[in-house]
Amino acid sequence: MKPSQNIRSSAQKFPLVDYCYQAPILNHSSAPCVKKSNSLSDISRDYFDAESNREFATDAAVFGTLIAMAIVPIMAGVFAVVHLLRALPLF
pTM of the entire structure? Predict the structure, then answer.
């Protein structure tokens, strides 16, 4: 015997949508006003004025370490290709 399905034909299939919804207006914002910078140097000066030297040094050290770690396998690959080219008889 097959189980019977308990589905009504008059049942609502989708949720009701309020098409007249309007987002509330935020009158009192706590965000500061954005001041416009005239050039890229103004933007970078503002950024580095706000950034502490210790954080910059830490970021520079991590970046340098990542670059050094990326260069090691690249150089190993270059040396392997050079070694292969020296071992092949080209003429």
Answer: 0.38
